Amino acid sequence: MRLLLGLMWLLHWLPLPVIGRLGEAVGSLLFFAMRSRRAITLANLRLCLPSLSGRERRRIAHQHFRYYARSILERSVLWWGSEARLRRLVVMEPGLPMDVIEAGPTILLCPHFVCLDVAGAAIAQRISACSMYVPQKNKVFDAALRRGRARFRPVRLFTRSEGVKPIIRAMRERLPFFMLPDMDFGPRDAEFVPFFGIPAATLSAPARIAAATGARVVPVIATYLPGYRGWKVKFYPAWEDYPGGDITEATRRMNVFIEERVLEAPAEYFWAHRRFKTRPPGMPDVYQNER
Fold first, then answer.
1. Cis bond leading into 94, ω under 30°?
2. Rounded to the nearest 5°, which phi and psi values hold at 79?
3. 291: confidence class by pLDDT, cuts 50, 70, 90
4. 50, 9 contact by CB (below 8 A)
5. How far apart are CA 11 and CA 237, in angstroms?
6. CA of 126: how far to CAs of 98, 130, 176, 181, 232, in Å?
7. Mean pLDDT (the chain, rounded)
8. pTM surpassing 0.85?
9. N or C: which terminus of the chain carries fewer CB neighbours within 10 A?
10. Is the CB of residue 74 less than 8 Å from the CB of residue 23?
11. 288 Cβ partners below 8 Å, 6+ apart?
């Protein structure tokens, strides 16, 4: 792992177009080598985008692998590139909503697009925040990840095992919560609401935390700029009347928003995750027949 991190450190000296093209070449190889992940990706696309032909879905899946591998190599720039370089490469649209953040508790809701780490880095350049993360098995890589995410401003990272109480305390101290809301962590604290028409175990935490703290929810989407010129981080207007009185409906509303953004950049969404791993009682495993 130390050797791999050393190679990534060397990568950050290269121009971004070189890193991007190298990452995409690696992704093309992984598309053919990682059979199980390719099958999961194609299954998700078949379920969520059934109007597309099999050929179109395979093209999106291939491009997704290219983008995902590219995003991993580009973390070298996020972790070791200069602050000035990052500011040149990241376009923030329209800009960090400091008026909302300074007014009270805030959730910065960032779905799993492959460039989400760019959003985290862009925010951390300007303000401190809190977030949740999954501890890595390799301690060297775990330390590098934590250091990379907090190198500009202090970032409080919590694990799922700690629950939501430390997050709520941090939010009440005026630290915005950078939240990744759209992975399948099982039925606990989740609602089965549609995602592209398929029942998906969806975290209700955004709605519950917003209800408990009075937080405003500001969606954030990070995507690639064309021509290997960098990234765009777009902040959407804070949701009005959220979560309202119905947690299930608020969770469904979140998924509708994510669906709309996925259709704008389908290859950049994280399709390799088993989004429909947890099924409602009596419903079959959607991945068992994929090869």
1. yes
2. -85, -30
3. very low
4. no
5. 36
6. 10, 13, 12, 22, 16
7. 94
8. yes
9. C
10. yes
11. none
**Residue range 216-247, pLDDT digits in tens:** 999 999 999 999 999 999 999 999 999 999 99
* Two tokens, residue 120: 């985290």
Place of tokens 């399709």: 271
Q: Using one digit for the tens of pLDDT, what is the confidence trace for 155-211?
A: 999 988 888 899 999 999 999 999 999 999 998 889 999 999 999 999 999 999 999
Asked if 187 and 203 touch (Cβ cutoff 8 Å), the reply is: no
| 8 A C-beta contact, residue 124 and residue 152 | yes
CA distance linking residue 149 with residue 155, whole number of Å: 7
Buried b (16+ CB within 10 A) or exposed e, 24-40: bebbeebbeeeeebbbb
What spatial distance separates the first Cα and last Cα of the chain, rounded to whole Å? Answer: 30
**How many of the other CB atoms lie within 10 Å of CB of 161?**
6
Which residues have a Cβ under 8 Å from the Cβ of 110 and sit 6 or more positions away?
116, 119, 120, 178, 179, 180, 181, 219, 220, 221, 222
CA atoms of 157 and 130, how far apart (whole Å) = 6
Is residue 132 within a helix (H) or strand (E), and if so which, with residue range?
A: strand 129-132
Alpha-carbon span 247 to 14, nearest angstrom = 47
Q: Quick check: 290 pLDDT over 60?
A: no
